[in-house]
Amino acid sequence: MKFTDDDGKVWNLEATSGAGAARDQHYRDLLPITDEAVANGVFLTPLTKEQSVAVIAAVVVEELIAKGRYHDAMAVADILIEHYPVFAYIMVKKATASYHLLRTEFHEKYPTAQDVPEDQRPYLAYLQRVNQSMFDRAESLGWRALQR
């Protein structure tokens, strides 16, 4: 995590190993961090207090998804994005929640899109738009999926 001290100096601290100093290049070597993501403030940038709270609250979205509460996860994601507009990770989580809704409410019930009842098609289209737009927004900021 990046921390700005009272003198305005920015420190990069390894949050998972006793807060030892870390270099940005170390993370760039390990993770799919693009130049575009760094320039857009997605990675390797100090966070404001508001953004920090949004990052901390990301666990709420993760937990809601884990419990199958996909609508709630999307609603909380919207709030976090409002407070941290370039929070690519939570955009991806919102896309994931919409995917799970698409899967459980449509793909598992209807063999084709034409089989979806007419009155449910607007909701299907909405979920498809959310899924695509969240991935598109995250990718436009420079986010890339981790290649394993």
Give an overview of the whole structure:
The chain is mainly α. 57% of the residues lie in helices and 7% in strands. A three-stranded antiparallel β-sheet has the order 1-2-3, with no helix packed on it. Helix 3 runs antiparallel to helix 4, helix 3 (49-66) packs parallel to helix 5 (88-107) and helix 4 (70-83) packs antiparallel against helix 5 (88-107). The longest helix is centred in the middle third of the chain and has 20 residues, at 88-107. It is elongated. The chain starts with a strand and ends in an 8-residue tail after the last helix. The mean pLDDT is 82.
How do you describe this structure in short?
By secondary structure, the chain is mainly alpha-helical. The protein has six helices and three strands; from the N terminus they run E-E-E-H-H-H-H-H-H. It has helices at 24-30, 35-39, 49-66, 70-83, 88-107, 121-140, and strands spanning 2-4, 10-14, 20-21.
Radius of gyration: 18 Å
User: Can you write the helix and strand succession as a string?
Assistant: EEEHHHHHH
Strand order of the largest sheet: 1-2-3
Oligomer: single chain
Sketch the major β-sheet: 3 strands, antiparallel
Percent strand equals 5-15%
> Total helix count?
6
Tell me the helix content. 55-70%
Low-confidence spans? none
Question: What distance lies between the first and last C-alpha atoms, to the nearest angstrom?
Answer: 24 Å
Query: What is the 3D shape?
Result: elongated
Structural class: mainly alpha
- DSSP E strands, number: 3
Mean pLDDT: 82
